[in-house]
Amino acid sequence: MVRLITHNMLACHVKNCTKDNFPLSFSEVELVIRPTEENLDFLKRFLPKLDWSALVHTARSLGDESLPEEMPEISSWTEEQLKALHHVLMEIHVEEGNMICKGCGHVYPISNGIPNMLLAEHEVGR
């Protein structure tokens, strides 16, 4: 399933695509909200691995405005802020649609929650 926690780590790997290849933009998406058990300690540990500005931009492009523009200091996160982060990272699922590279325009289709990240042979760098 394409959740934003996964999306935050995906970049375009088309040969010679090295500029504006992260984050991939969503288009024509079908979203599903799937409540999941909260693990706020996991989120605190995962925070340093996130590209915060990419996460906020992507969440807002999908209609979620709950995250602050700037990431708060890890020690100052409130339970309410962690719950909002949990919702964005773990409960928003992209079931159908596309992820598009802003750099080269390559389209990665999403079907049944699974992104197709495979490239044609001519697109693969050697």
UniProtKB/TrEMBL annotation:
It comes from Kwoniella pini CBS 10737. InterPro entries: Trm112, Trm112-like. It holds the Pfam family Trm112p. One of its GO terms (biological process) is rRNA (guanine-N7)-methylation. One of its GO terms (molecular function) is protein heterodimerization activity. This is Multifunctional methyltransferase subunit TRM112. The keyword Transferase applies. Belongs to the TRM112 family. It comes from the Eukaryota. Interacts with TRM9. Keywords: Methyltransferase, Transferase.
